[in-house]
Inverse folding.
């Protein structure tokens, strides 16, 4: 077995080993009282376009409710909690996984058109206990404690109807905005992230790339929702032994200020026409494959909104840390999956291991999704 395979196995074992440390909050007491429906139904859920605060808590749940009524009660309760007043800058985003639309709850005819279980891509080693789930809860807040407390409350509200499948806290180092006001952070590889995103303040762009529209097919309740892809990506420590010039060639941007290689500013508009041979930005650089910046790849652009994670060290003393990659798009095939396939074999793959995550759909409004279950 090659060194690379061994290293990747060891990485995965470390990631899986962390399960025991962070799982185990399921099965909390059920909260009583009739569920109330929130008064105002938002068109889109928060936590997609809203500027990401510093901290987050993600959890995927398996629904174990016995029947559709049990599921409806669960969704009602979560929807009420999500709509209840909470601190400024705190967002709760509820999403559903493909598993919810299997034979258990009679929802097969209501499955969002593009929702399936996330497949393993060539460089992935997906651990079941870190992947998929019937529901995804994303809580974002300025403080980690607040995000965690809200997630704990939601877990308790779920009671015995849902069990935590995987759970992970996130943070955004150097969280801020770039010169054009787009959210940025510095990930644990030391690079700024966010500049290549479409602008979440541009409503027309968001309608084009992020929100499901009337002409997208699928059940009508999905309009105004969006597909959420989560990838749990562990970073390999060997990255830190590489010279900065090599790291920059792998990414395609400067490490200190995020400027595209050969350019002067992070937010400078550029394309690859003047650099067909990759003398400035290598042809296999991450940003070049992720977004070739030509009209024919425009429809595959995605809105990234990720967080870093840190889970201490594994049994071998290696840091278990990386990226909770999150992106939103109107169509997973056209968005994330197309980008991911285009990046196959990129040099960045040597330094990362995707061990979990999933595909989810964010309904336009949790309350109306809950109401659908009673129909
Ligand atoms: C595996 C760990 C990853 C790391 C360390 C990483 C890092 C980065 C960095 C530093 C940038 C440049 C700054 C920016 O535009 O935000 C970037 C851009 C980008 N990344 Fe990633 N990324 C990772 C995974 C992914 C994945 C899984 C996807 C999607 C399949 C993706 C898609 C993109 C896109 C679309 C851009 C913007 C490129 C542009 O518009 O020029 N990245 N990434």
């Amino acid at each position: 077995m090659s060194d690379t395979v061994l290293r990747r196995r060891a990485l995965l074992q470390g990631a899986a080993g962390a399960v025991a440390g962070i799982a185990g909050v399921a099965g909390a007491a059920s909260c009583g009282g009739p569920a109330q429906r929130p008064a105002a139904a938002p068109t889109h859920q928060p936590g997609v376009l809203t500027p990401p605060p510093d901290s987050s808590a993600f959890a995927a749940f398996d629904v174990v409710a016995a029947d559709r009524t049990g599921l409806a009660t669960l969704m009602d309760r979560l929807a009420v909690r999500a709509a209840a007043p909470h601190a400024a800058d705190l967002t709760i985003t509820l999403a559903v996984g493909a598993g919810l639309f299997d034979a258990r709850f009679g929802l097969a005819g209501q499955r969002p058109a593009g929702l399936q279980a996330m497949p393993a891509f060539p460089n992935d080693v997906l651990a079941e206990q870190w992947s998929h789930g019937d529901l995804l809860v994303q809580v974002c807040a300025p403080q980690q404690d607040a995000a965690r407390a809200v997630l704990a409350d939601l877990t308790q509200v779920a009671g015995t109807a849902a069990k935590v499948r995987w759970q992970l806290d996130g943070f955004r180092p150097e969280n801020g905005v770039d010169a054009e006001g787009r959210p940025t952070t510095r990930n644990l590889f030391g690079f700024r992230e966010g500049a290549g995103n479409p602008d979440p303040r541009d409503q027309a762009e968001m309608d084009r790339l992020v929100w499901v529209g009337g002409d997208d097919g699928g059940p009508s309740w999905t309009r105004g929702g969006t597909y959420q892809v989560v990838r749990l990506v562990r970073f390999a420590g060997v990255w830190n032994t590489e010279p900065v010039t090599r790291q920059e060639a792998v990414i395609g941007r400067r490490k200190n200020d995020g400027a595209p290689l050969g350019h002067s500013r992070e937010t400078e508009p550029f394309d690859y026409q003047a650099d067909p041979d990759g003398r400035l930005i290598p042809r296999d650089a991450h940003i070049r494959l992720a977004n070739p910046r030509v009209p024919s790849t425009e429809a595959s652009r995605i809105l990234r909104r990720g967080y870093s994670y840190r889970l201490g060290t594994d049994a071998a003393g290696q840091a278990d840390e990386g990226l909770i990659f999150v992106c939103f798009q109107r169509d997973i095939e056209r968005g994330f999956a197309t980008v991911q396939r285009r990046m196959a074999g990129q040099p960045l793959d040597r330094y990362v291991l995707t061990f979990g995550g999933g595909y989810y759909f964010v309904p336009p409004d949790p309350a109306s999704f809950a109401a659908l279950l009673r129909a």
